[in-house]
Amino acid sequence: MPSLRRAVFLDHHSLDLGDLDLSPLKQQFDALELFAATAPEQVAERLQGASVVISNKVMLDQPTLAANPQLKLILVAATGTNNVDLAAARAQGITVCNCQGYGTPSVAQHTIALLLALATRLCDYNQAVAAGQWAKASQFCLLDFPIVELQGKTLGLLGHGELGGAVARLAEAFGMRVLSGQIPGRPPRADRLPLEELLPQVDALTLHCPLNAQTRHMLGARELALLKPNALVVNTARGGLIDEQALADALRRGHLGGAATDVLSVEPPVNGNPLLAADIPRLIITPHSAWGAVEARQRIVGQLAENAQAFFCGDARRVVG
Length: 321
Description:
Layout: E1 6-9, H1 23-26, E2 31-34, H2 43-47, E3 52-55, H3 62-66, E4 73-76, H4 86-91, E5 95-97, H5 104-120, H6 122-130, E6 154-158, H7 162-173, E7 177-180, H8 195-198, E8 204-207, H9 221-226, E9 232-235, H10 244-252, E10 258-261, E11 283-285, H11 294-312
Parallel strand pairs: 1-2, 1-3, 3-4, 4-5, 6-7, 6-8, 8-9, 9-10, 10-11
Pfam families: 2-Hacid_dh, 2-Hacid_dh_C
Organism: Pseudomonas mosselii
InterPro entries: D-iso_2-hydroxyacid_DH_PdxB (IPR050418), D-isomer_2_OHA_DH_cat_dom (IPR006139), D-isomer_DH_CS (IPR029753), D-isomer_DH_NAD-bd (IPR006140), NAD(P)-bd_dom_sf (IPR036291)
């Protein structure tokens, strides 16, 4: 008879780089087996005898769950649950809990960092110095790339939940005016502007909403064309929210002042991506790292421990599905 408190973490290196304290999580189990990563063909074997499985991105589909009737609890080491067949888990009586709100400070500061990098042309100046252009300048400074101030500019938010609200507060600290847009598929609200009204007004646009059937390619060629020619676009949400080919084309045409994204439609981009082309100007790409501050990842450990403890006490929290 497997212990109710025997757990396996299938991909703990996706969370812990050796810089986290896992003791709060380990204390919840009689045994916790850690696997750095787990390939699809290894999942079934590693789940044997475990009543609790912790996973960040390893797929837990219906056949996998059905082959492991001893499973009682799935702890998702993230907010997104697309790696778990929630319907199958529900039918099998498996509780699924995720983590929530752990990365707000980390993602918010990354969003503003990207916005500042675009406004100050940080990457262009860094590359210019590395290429020796400053050393060849005719005066004390190099001002080859136009710099703009955020103060007095208008920021458009698509997604004004906890994360969007945190970005709004930081933007307001820089003296920006903040407007919120209507997310496709959601009921209209008086304080949310339709996209066709929002986009022409903003000097910068940041995305903080989930990816679903209604929001996929929410920003396509038509929407990007509605933005001001020097507008800045920052996406730290999901890659599929923007039509990546349309964004690449807009940047090549010089329509936008710049764009930055921490996310792509397929991650990692093993088969390439339109935004990875070498000829796209004024584009910054970071590797889905906005959430990764050590403090944010430690919060995940804490929430996983809380979720496990609450489940064992008969009062499960952060239940999804």
